[in-house]
Amino acid sequence: MFKSILKYLTKKEWGLIVIIGIINVIQVWLNLKIPEYMGIITRYITNSSYITPGDPLFIGKDEVMNQVYSYGELMILCSIGSLITTIVICYIASRVASRLSQDCRSRMFNRVDSFSMGDINKFSIASLITRSTNDVTQVQMIFTFGLQLIIYAPMLAIGALFKITVANYEWTLATSMAMLLLVVMFVIVMKAVIPKFKKMQTLTDNVNDRARENLMGLPVVRAYNAEKYQEEKFERANDELVKTQLYTTHGMAVMFPFIMVIMNCLMLAIYWIGAIIIGRINPADFASMQDYGEAVGASIGNMIVFSSYAMQIMMAVMMLLILFIMLPRAQVAGRRIYEVIETEPSIKDGGVVEPDTGLKGTIEFKNVSFKYPGASDYVLKDISFSAKQGETIAFIGSIGSGKTTLVNLVPRFYDVSEGSVLVDGVDVRNYKLESLYNKIGYIPQKSVLFTGTVTSNVAFGENGKEQATEEDVKTAVRIAQGQDFVENMKDGYDSEIVRGGANLSGGQKQRVSIARAVCRKPEIYIFDDSFSALDYKTDRALRTALKKETRGVTSMIIAQRIGTIMDADKIVVLDEGKVMGIGKHRELLSTCSIYKEIAMSQLSEEELAI
């Protein structure tokens, strides 16, 4: 899966990765030289201790110290060089990993931005949030550490192993046994924890989903004293995540002490074997004390050098094991990111920008049927009607009759399963999406406002025309009957609106949403029960202003109140996804029993003018 994500790296970043590889070679060479110099110093000191002052080969203490200082300086230079290369590698790796995570987040955001509602429901909002935050962080971490270790650790292990192949076979055998134990222990632990690592991201989705649900429904939760119930739901999801995390953490907690024990035992074995090797050296076998000293010095030096290289091998193996520990969860995260980025939106862009039919603001449904993706039952069945330019067509019916689903087919939030929806004589599936949206002023059932000001919310978005002016904003707010409350706010049209419009009432949010659609100057308005929070007086005044000020614009209105739609040019009555009647208010009162029943439940016979 990482192979798929790697394709998002640019040529510049691949160049930086090559530079990391080159610097890693230098870093490994510097680290491998340090034990060599340490062994030379050790042998030099040991040899000199066996040469007496009267010996012709005697070197004074000052000369010995000069040699120690000379090689010691080389060791320090190698250490400083290793430090500098490590810092440079960390810096470059962090840059590459951060850029990759930035690109993944941007790609995911842009892809989700092009999703239909069905595509979003396929993943769920909580999962999409987790994928663009936690999952991206997991991938960033594995790339940051991976770029530092994936080249360095194997090269260091191979280089150190090459250095010790000429040493005593007993030391080599001890190191090999330690490495084998390390690998076996790692395989056992990872076999137990990898399935849990893979499960962890899904459990994080569940926790986010519970938290989001509770925060969005907090007023209802409090009103029904359901805090304990919600806490228990959250705790169940949270406990499952914690148990999984503890399981994996315990596995890691068991492994690392064992690693330290193995490393310490290896050091002990190296010195124990070294002591045996030195004990085997018999002074009687040598012609002079100098030869004997050289043999002892060489053995001690080899022991120190070997122990250093053995530790480098073990550290390299341990770094790789740590990388492999992080890998399973990051693989799952990478797969989830790739799944979103590579998901093709179900709503495809058409090619029509402006139809040549000569029509404007017309809507026609031809034998439209619709069912949600994966569902077996149709939500809408064989719907047919039309609306001419400037007409107001209203939809009414019981809850779940398919009203919102029907109007959502016009801006292609979903595509029809059967039949066709025509705007200005052209099937909406043939429109370029941007051009289709430019024709529509959409006011959703639940008012959606964004962080900013009144002006930024009313002049929100682009519609292919000139940017909305201050006068356009004020006119739209006036038509939406929001002028009084907006101008009474502290900063008027520049007053701040917090996230979700939490500092406005329901009616105020609806009027700002309606003003946003009016400011767009569209051909078609879609009001999805957008007058429900308004009082009757404001509702009436708003609809009168809309009819007067936006003459020639077609309106689709969903409403539960008869008073809102009784003046519509055409009313469509829906029941269980079927059209039960189409006509004006007076016609339906006499021809459609469902409409009459709804009307009689809200208004008296006098008010209905029966």
UniProtKB/TrEMBL annotation:
<feature type="transmembrane region" description="Helical">
    <location>
        <begin position="253"/>
        <end position="279"/>
    </location>
</feature>
<keyword id="KW-1133">Transmembrane helix</keyword>
<keyword id="KW-0812">Transmembrane</keyword>
<dbReference type="InterPro" id="IPR017871">
    <property type="entry name" value="ABC_transporter-like_CS"/>
</dbReference>
<dbReference type="InterPro" id="IPR039421">
    <property type="entry name" value="Type_1_exporter"/>
</dbReference>
<feature type="domain" description="ABC transmembrane type-1">
    <location>
        <begin position="74"/>
        <end position="329"/>
    </location>
</feature>
<feature type="transmembrane region" description="Helical">
    <location>
        <begin position="141"/>
        <end position="162"/>
    </location>
</feature>
<keyword id="KW-0813">Transport</keyword>
<dbReference type="Pfam" id="PF00005">
    <property type="entry name" value="ABC_tran"/>
</dbReference>
<dbReference type="GO" id="GO:0005886">
    <property type="term" value="C:plasma membrane"/>
</dbReference>
<dbReference type="InterPro" id="IPR003593">
    <property type="entry name" value="AAA+_ATPase"/>
</dbReference>
<keyword id="KW-0067">ATP-binding</keyword>
<dbReference type="GO" id="GO:0015421">
    <property type="term" value="F:ABC-type oligopeptide transporter activity"/>
</dbReference>
<feature type="transmembrane region" description="Helical">
    <location>
        <begin position="299"/>
        <end position="327"/>
    </location>
</feature>
<dbReference type="InterPro" id="IPR036640">
    <property type="entry name" value="ABC1_TM_sf"/>
</dbReference>
<dbReference type="GO" id="GO:0016887">
    <property type="term" value="F:ATP hydrolysis activity"/>
</dbReference>
<feature type="transmembrane region" description="Helical">
    <location>
        <begin position="74"/>
        <end position="93"/>
    </location>
</feature>
<feature type="transmembrane region" description="Helical">
    <location>
        <begin position="174"/>
        <end position="194"/>
    </location>
</feature>
<dbReference type="InterPro" id="IPR027417">
    <property type="entry name" value="P-loop_NTPase"/>
</dbReference>
<dbReference type="GO" id="GO:0005524">
    <property type="term" value="F:ATP binding"/>
</dbReference>
<keyword id="KW-0472">Membrane</keyword>
<dbReference type="InterPro" id="IPR011527">
    <property type="entry name" value="ABC1_TM_dom"/>
</dbReference>
<keyword id="KW-0547">Nucleotide-binding</keyword>
<keyword id="KW-1003">Cell membrane</keyword>
<feature type="domain" description="ABC transporter">
    <location>
        <begin position="363"/>
        <end position="601"/>
    </location>
</feature>
<dbReference type="InterPro" id="IPR003439">
    <property type="entry name" value="ABC_transporter-like_ATP-bd"/>
</dbReference>
<protein>
    <submittedName>
        <fullName>Putative ABC transporter ATP-binding protein</fullName>
    </submittedName>
</protein>
<dbReference type="Pfam" id="PF00664">
    <property type="entry name" value="ABC_membrane"/>
</dbReference>
<feature type="transmembrane region" description="Helical">
    <location>
        <begin position="12"/>
        <end position="30"/>
    </location>
</feature>
